Amino acid sequence: MRKKKSTQRSVWAETWRRLKKDKMAVAGLIFIGLLVVIAFSTMFIDIATNKAVYNDYVIKQNLRMRLQGPSPDHVFGLDEFGRDILLRMLWGTRYSLFMGTFAIVFSVIVGSLLGAVSGFYGKVADNVIMRFMDVLLAIPSMLLATAIVAALGTSLTNVLLAISISYIPTFARTVRASVLTIKDQEYIEAARALGAGDGRIIFRYIIPNSLAPLIVQATLGVAGAILSIAGLSFLGLGIQPPTPEWGSMLSNARTYIREGWHVTVIPGLGIMLTILALNILGDGLRDALDPRLKN
Amino acid sequence: MEKEKEILIDIEDLWVKFSTDDGVVKAVNGISLKLEKGETFGLVGETGAGKTTLAKAIMSLIPTPPGEITKGKINFKGEDLLKCSDHRIREIRGNDISMIFQDPMTSLNPVMRVGEQIKEVIEIHNPKMSETELHEKVVEMLRLVGISEDRINEFPHQFSGGMKQRVIIAIALACNPLLLIADEPTTALDVTIQAQVLDMIKKLKQKLNTSMLLITHDLGVVVQNCDKVAIVYAGEIVETGNLREIFKNPLHPYTRGLFDSIPSLTKDTRRLKPIEGLMPDPTNLPEGCNFCPRCKFAKEECKTKNPAFVHKEGEHYVKCFLYEEGK
User: Fold this and answer.
1) Which chain B residue lies closest to A289 (C-alpha atoms)?
2) B59 contacts chain A (CB < 8 A)
3) How far, rounded to the nearest angstrom, does the alpha carbon of residue A287 sit from its chain's CA centroid?
4) What separation, in Å, do the N-terminal and C-terminal C-alpha atoms of chain A show?
5) For an engineered disulfide with A136, which of A59, A146, A169, B169 has Cβ 3.0 to 4.6 Å away?
6) What sign does the dihedral B145-B151-B152-B157 (CA atoms) show?
7) Is A243 left (phi over 0), alpha (psi -120 to 50) or beta?
């Protein structure tokens, strides 16, 4: 037991050492870290003040001040209802970030389970699962999510569910592909030849070797999920106003694009930067996780 | 008169086939061989002759399906390996019988440090060993194969091919196996490294008193290492005997053909003499002797009947009609 822990740590330490060399990836990581801190501190403020700040500043309308541009008092300006965009952005972080992450975690778990089963057992199981995944893949993910939300009604859980389901095939395919290639590697046979059991082979050989593509795919998936959530909100199928979700902020603001540029640009930039950071981080992780690539 | 030698592994009439879409591939067709303790047995044959399948059958590594051992016994220390439970087989693998694979480039787990990989086999078979003991053993194994201790934490991609093969040898020998199966251990290496690796295997084998089944298609490797040789053709042993008997007096037309196709160092040969034709398709073996279609001495009976082993002298056996009546 002790041994396992120490090897794991050293593998991650190795990854971290390599990731640190990639300045862009570190920048992405810092940005994402910052967003996580913001998301948690706004949640903490909500709990501490019993949502007083949220009710008084984030969703409180002040129509006399609507669409006011950036000023020292309101750094990002005010939106069409006179609400501070900076605060709304900060409070909205949690939705984009956590919902994206939750959706992906869920689909990674379900997807890799399905992928592993079809990769391992092959034959009938493989055919049934993968053909079903093909059907899901054939429908554009945005359309699928829209359909699910439209059918089940707009709520936070339904949006999450919709996004998760639309991402499951991607992960199932990724995992299945890596399990298939790894399963036939000579080192798996060599491991069998030295007396390793199935459990050891799966946990020490197959999983570590298929983890890298999965992590990268997941990081990129979070970016995609955030975009999908924002997209659904933009279409009015996601999180409902007055909740300050970035996508719905962008959607509501688009009517006022001529009266106040900042109302659309700020949430748009927020979404863009988050996705950019996640993508860069994903790329960096891919390089760092592969011990074969460099020292 | 002769002193009683201890038989380590005794393979009796082993048949292995693979059922594929293109038909049933008869990979091993009734191979029998005995291996004594401390001895090196060379298994020589072309690609596809069934050497590796035989090795995998011993390790119970034949993928089923499509593979199937249809007949035979593999007696190892009084146990029939083909009847062992999965659990027992796992205990034997790596501990009593271990295997060196053909390609060192792909036989190591790319995401595990080499030290870990050597440690793993010791750990599997000695679960009670403490962390420090394990580490000491790993260091000892590395030293034995001539790798510096401070490379213990490196990954396989940081090693050259020859070094990787050394690591694999260290893994194979870590538990002092009784039998080492070396499946073309030097095919993927260049000639100088080949010599080094073979030399090392030989020394370690003597030191640890391990028996070895050496699979190769290089007759030079056989001469340097083996005590006994079996020539394999299309899943059958066509000639077997000790090294001297085979090399001084090759009898089977196929064995002779093999020796004829080696360039001579002393004579000026313009062209090599290859054996005409190709190995028969293992899904569609000839009715009689498998070598018959390529044999210069083929007779009428070769086409319909499969010859039995003919005893020549000492341990020399040959599976050919040519020697039946002459005896």
Assistant:
1) B111
2) yes
3) 19
4) 28
5) A169
6) negative
7) beta
ipTM for the predicted complex comes to: 0.78
Please check the confidence at residue A31 and state whether its pLDDT lies above 90: yes
What backbone torsions phi and psi does residue A198 show, to the nearest 5 degrees? -60, -45
Whole-Å CA distances, B16 to A258, B182, B228, B276? 79, 20, 23, 27
- The reply to whether B107 touches chain A by the CB within 8 Å rule is yes
Q: Quick one: tokens of A203?
A: 């946990």
DSSP bridge partners of A84: A78
Inter-chain touch A196–B111, beta carbons under 8 Å: no
CA distance B17 to chain A (A): 19
Cβ neighbors of B125 (< 8 A, separation 6 or more) are A195, B91, B94, B95, B175
Q: How many CB atoms lie within 10 A of CB A270?
A: 23
The CA distance from A252 to A85, in Å, is 13
Global pTM reads 0.72
Residue to test with chain B: of A194, A215, A294, most B Cβ within 10 A = A194
Distance set, CA B212 to CA B63, B99, B182, B229 (Å): 23, 10, 7, 12
pLDDT tens, B19-33?
Answer: 888 888 888 888 888
Of A193, A209, A292, Cβ closest to residue B94: A193
Instruction: Specify whether the backbone of B275 is left (phi greater than 0), alpha (psi in -120 to 50) or beta.
Output: beta
Report whether B235 contacts B54 (CB < 8 A). Answer: no
Q: Does A202 touch chain B (CB under 8 A)?
A: no
What confidence category does residue A292 fall into, taking pLDDT thresholds of 50, 70 and 90?
low
CA–CA min distance B107, chain A (Å): 4
Provide the chain A residues 172-191 that lie in CB contact (below 8 A) with chain B. 185-187, 189-191
Q: A104 is written with which tokens?
A: 């992906």
